[in-house]
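Structure, all two chains, one model.
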Amino acid sequence: MDNIQVLIEFTGISRMLTEKMEYQLSLAEGAGIMDVVRAIGRKFPLLVGEVIEKDGETLIPTNLFSVNGKQILNEKQLHYQPKDGDRLILLSLLAGG
Amino acid sequence: MFGYSGKILHIDLIEQKTWVEGKTEDWYKIWIGGVSMATRLCWENITPGCDPYSPENPVCFANGIFAGTPVPVGGKYGLASKSPMTGFIGDSLSGSWFSIALKRASWDGVVIHGTSEEWVYIFIDDERVEFRDASKLMGLGTFAAEEAIRDELADDQVRSATIGPAGENMVRFANVTNDGRQAGRTGHGSVWASKKLKAVSVRGTKGITVADPETLNKLSFDITKAAQGPHTSKYRLLGTVTNVLNMNKLGLLPTRNYQEGVFEDAEMVSGEFLHEHNKVKTIACAQCPIACEQMSMVKTGPWAGAMTGIEYECLFANSSNLGINDINAAIKLIEIADQGGMDAMSMGITLSWAMESFEKGVLTKEDFKCEKHPDGLELTFGNGMAAVATAEMIRDQVAVGKLLSQGTKRASETIDKERGTKSYQWAMHSKGMETAGYEARGLKTFSLGSAVGTRGPCHNRTAAYDPDIKGVVDRFTVDDTRGELARSTEEYAAVYDTLPLCKFIRRCFTGKADRAGAWPMIAKLINATTGWNYEYDDIDLIGERAFTIKKAFNIREGWKRTDDTLPYRWMNEPMTKGPSAGHFTSDEELEYMKDLYYKAKGWNNDGMIPKEKLKELGMPDVAEQIGV
């Protein structure tokens, strides 16, 4: 199976915890968002418990992925399969201010 | 009665007298506190149709039900008057020690009537009230005035809500400040100045009694513990300024007077940059375990030493929206607003209108000529020095500052009339209040919420960006769910604004922020405080009542359907860059969404409220006056 390349962009708390602005992730073609979450949780364990749930499988609520800045994936869209070259922006949303 | 004293303090500035109004428990069960009670007090005490700067426009404080109790983030109060910016209700919230002092002084609310002959400040010392000469406080910034009052009264337990020099100078968007927090938007500072009221100071020495202290303590302890965990760490570590990059990535960061939604230098004015280069401390309000205020300082350059708390809305308005990529200039601008007592959002957006007007030749260097700048200024996008100088002109009412001090609506109307220009096309306001830090052209539900907002386009009151930004709906299109969504989010927000509780706590009750996750716990907190028997549906009613009384107030002041609109730019000019390029909200889309919203609210198609609806909500007197 071919691999695809996606770029994970970190902002806010995820950037502080990973100390990275972005991270190139190689995924098996057909992998879904949950695979992305597992992969970055393994690579950046500090995200677990703060951005990723303790089980390493899903994002803590109000942390979401946006695909290329346009589509925002809600908790019911975990089946989304990234395409080669997608920018997955990990947003830590907060209201007010 | 538990949780309330049952007393509203009335203060007459004309005759310098006071009286006490008793309220029944049933009255408190409907109005609760915060924005709802403050608006109700304004409804009861205003002369309808009055000029906001007249003696007939009251200043109404309404304390929080949880102020001074162990309930975390409950130390807040509401403030309401008729807004000089919109002519409709101006309801604001502030927090921290002032609300606790007022509770300990045994006042649920304070209504200030009339206009003083000389500048005064009011000192509420438990049940005693003094009218004190404010002449020595004149010209002092907001924080300095609080300190000076404490020195004068020789008591550091005195807490004060003050106006700054901008308020004294009648800057229309001046605000009220206490304990480093602001009752912002809508222009309270200029209303106070019209009354020659510099400050309201409070000393409260009494205890606070609740119905079930054991239960309240236990619930509060559990929530406090959750409030120091992952549900709130983003507020603590970076604060709301996280939203600069969030919004930029989605093409929603207002840039150069909302011309676009992406700023090429967003990283340089981001929360992440601020954290690394300028943050000195995180500060919490009284009664708050979260601590979200990012105190930040300019360390080098012409504004070295400038320091203030930085929030997202103030930051976008004074950085990307001005084309400014220098974080130091942004901090300085926000400091000018905070110390001077001006709403930093309205100040920034009025500056951005002025920048675009300058670049289009509507304003010229001559307009900026004054003693300090005899050659005038070139207020172009990105020019931080000129922006800082102009902000000072606004505060001090000098040169073009006089025009700008009236906000974008009046500034553009005045200049277009005088010079035959069309600057209204880039005046970013609705109902006279400047817009918030979300590019509504890329958020269709939020564009509806902005248009129908009772105090103007307010992200805090509508919260309708929530379904757009969380991908619950397609943020770029309109469908028949938007009316109900806008109703639901605004009434959800209104519950928090009425108690009041800071919304940042919303996930700390059960881990879920929705009604099912929050309302049962809120009901328990209310019941433990008051001894009432509130349940889920009662909490929902709190939000509906709050919004309804605000709408009723507006209707009585002459609101009509055409007032629910958006700035020209949002309705006519698509963005051209970034992920939200190509989008705007058409007139047809907005009218369709308004129809859906009014229907969802149970109002008629003109947006008027049926008598039966008002009676159902426990407002028979309101039904008689404005019901249809």
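Chain A touches chain B at residues 9, 11-13, 15-16, 49-50, 60-62, 64, 66, 68-74, 77, 89, 91-97 (CB under 8 Å).
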